[in-house]
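Hi everyone, sorry if this is the wrong subforum. Our group has a chain we'd like a structural model of before ordering constructs, and none of us has done structure prediction before. Sequence below.
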Amino acid sequence: MGIATLYVDNFSGRGVKHTYKDQTKATVWGQVIDIFYGFNFLKAHQKVNKNKIGITGNSRGGSVAWMVLDKRINDIFLNQGEQFAASMPIAHQCDMGQQFKNPIPTKTTVLNVHGGADNYTIPEPCIEYEKQIFRPEVKKVGGSSSSYIGKGWYHSFFANWEAEYYRYLVTFGKHKEGIRCPLNYTTDEGYSPDEMTNFIVSNSKVFNTKEDYYKMATENPRGTFKLLIEALSNKKNGCMGKGAMEGGDWGWMKNDAFKPASKSEILKVWNPIFLKFWKENLL
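Answer:
Right subforum, don't worry. Here is the predicted structure as tokens:
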């Protein structure tokens, strides 16, 4: 069809195999920077139209596909007037400080995709954030955003194994006591909102005040992140939980040796949506 793909491996060059146990090994912001360098690599390629570059990713990669849509980040790494033509963030986390409270969107066309049954990175915050990106007072010329929520789909809904429960996955959804993490968008000044900061300080053995937290975050961001996780996972009042569903409805199944993709009810719906979006926006 005339569409090429560039796969950016954010992990191997950093000696990382996974981040589900330690999110500091390869930061999301580091991945965002990688992606902009990928854009600059592609735009210099003789076969690539720089005005027709798209981005997609799942879970953490979906968060990256969200984060490149703000002009405050985009304009640091790209020339004036350059941005991704289209973005499809999939099953991404939208409530843990990786987006601006008052976003300034690029002119990118966006399709926000989530599984309706996703209990790992729940879809509701992303739907709310989409409304914030396209709020009436933002004068946006070109671009658009829509959402598709797959009924009954879990995280990694297109995966080639049967969905099952993984108890070690860290979640920011409802804790077992029903406590929910405050929404944590980045303010215009570059801080967490007071609700999240106060929650962290009140559950931390290290930070006595918000100023303590901000000072350490500036001087030692990696160490601060680890302490933040400790505060959020506080056994008594923390809001982090563990355990979520992962997988799809084809491939390796518990009761059958293998179920071909042609028999997947999810893929019958998902594949046409995926291909239609890229055909319309990149061709």
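For your construct planning: The longest strand covers residues 164-171. Helices lie at 28-43, 60-67, 71-77, 124-133, 194-202, 210-219, 221-232, 265-282.
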